[in-house]
Design goal:
The chain is built from five helices and 32 strands. The chain is mostly beta strands and about 400 residues long.
């Protein structure tokens, strides 16, 4: 009997100690340091009338480096004086003003502050509503509008390009792989990155794209080079180490039909072409790439659709292999030249639907790269492509 009592007593004590250990572990767990907005949306049938379609009522895939969240509406003037935006934030964080609270967006962006669970970190986000402009100022792309990024964790800075409409509105249509390159570049200046601005343009500034070494980390991951590239769309840093081609999402919506694109370039290929294992391919000379794609941004079921890096690997057969793609313009070759040389490419493919254009159901992706096969990590280190004074010509939309 005494053994039974002692055994029961020991079991009871061990249970109490175990419970206290579990409680202690839970109590001592570190608070979350993240303070990000993950997604944003406007809910409610009463608000659908202000958007061209339901898909525009939400903003997904918000990058951890993004500080502006923009909704596109039919008309800002017709918005109600107040409406709620629901904001999903990282676990444990807090946000002010509160998610879903009624705010006035007619007078400009509303600032939301997200504070981490541990209270030590915070970030400000600008949430705004804007309407599309038929004349967006994208007729001439001169690459004169450039700014420095925030300092990276590796103490580097790189250039970011944007456009400005004739009435002075900033539009962020450009993306590059600079953010991904920064992972392997420390204490680097903007001109060291694959994509940068130069003051030696055809007129004013120009775009400079060059293929560089991705260093020891890149070689280890079978990504030994980083080609300079600039494209219309978005770059997602969270994908770059796991699925690099999915880090590049191409295209911006349009409501006019591009018919041709022209501009000026200079190009010099690097001395030694290498494959993805950094082995020299004797006799092969690197080539630059300049092309544009128009595709439907809704699939057959009405869901949002985008082109990614892996969709654009086979440009020769893209029109026949992808039902979403309707038109392509590309230069068959980009000959080496030390002088500013004019280029022009016209779109080929099926005619665009007028109603779909009006509803902005087409995306345009314009892409420049210093190495044509850079997405497959093949090219020549040192290949350099300069681009300036690019003009997009549009057809009649009536």
């Amino acid at each position: 009997m005494k053994k039974t009592v002692n055994f029961a007593l020991r079991f009871w004590l061990l249970s109490i100690v175990g419970a206290l250990c579990v409680a202690s572990c839970i109590k001592d767990e570190a608070a979350n340091k993240e303070c990000d907005i993950v997604s944003a949306r406007v809910d409610g049938e009463q608000y659908e009338q202000y958007f061209a379609d339901r898909s525009r009522m939400s903003v997904q895939d918000i990058s951890s480096t993004q500080s502006e969240i923009k909704f596109e509406v039919i008309s800002v003037d017709n918005l109600p004086d107040e409406l709620p935006v629901l904001l999903e934030i990282t676990p444990g964080a807090t946000i002010k003003p509160a998610s879903g609270s009624m705010q006035n967006f007619k007078n400009g962006p509303v600032t939301y502050t997200v504070t981490s669970e541990d209270g030590k970190w915070s970030r400000n986000y600008q949430v705004s509503f804007s309407q599309p402009e038929r004349n967006t100022g994208l007729f001439l792309l001169n690459f004169d509008n450039v700014e420095l990024s925030e300092k990276t964790n590796s103490n580097s800075y790189y250039h970011k390009f944007y456009e400005v409409t004739p009435d002075g509105e900033r539009i962020d249509v450009w993306a590059s792989g600079n953010e991904g390159a920064a992972l392997t570049m420390s204490n680097s200046q903007p001109e060291d990155f694959p994509t940068s601005a130069t003051n030696q343009g055809y007129k004013g500034k120009a775009l400079c794209l060059k293929t560089i070494s991705a260093g020891a980390l890149g070689s280890m991951m079978k990504r030994p080079i980083a080609a300079g590239s600039l494209f219309m769309g978005k770059f997602f840093i969270d994908q770059v180490l796991y699925n690099t081609l999915r880090a590049t999402r191409f295209g911006i919506s349009i409501d006019r039909e591009p018919t041709a694109i022209k501009g000026y370039y200079k190009y010099k290929p690097g001395e030694k072409f290498t494959d993805k294992n950094l082995n020299e391919v004797v006799g092969r000379i690197d080539e630059a790439s300049i092309y544009a794609v128009i595709y439907q941004n809704k699939d057959s079921e009405g869901n949002d659709y985008y082109l990614y890096g892996d969709d654009l690997l086979d440009l020769d057969n893209l029109l026949t292999s992808n039902a979403q793609v309707v038109r392509i313009a590309r230069l068959s070759s980009v000959p080496a030249t030390d002088e500013w040389t004019k280029f022009e490419m016209t779109f080929e493919g099926e005619e665009l639907d007028r109603q779909k254009l009006k509803d902005k159901k087409y995306n345009l992706a314009l892409v420049f790269s210093s190495s044509k096969d850079g997405a497959q990590f093949e090219g020549a280190i040192g290949s350099t492509l300069y681009i300036d004074e690019v003009e997009i010509m549009f057809g009649n939309t009536k």
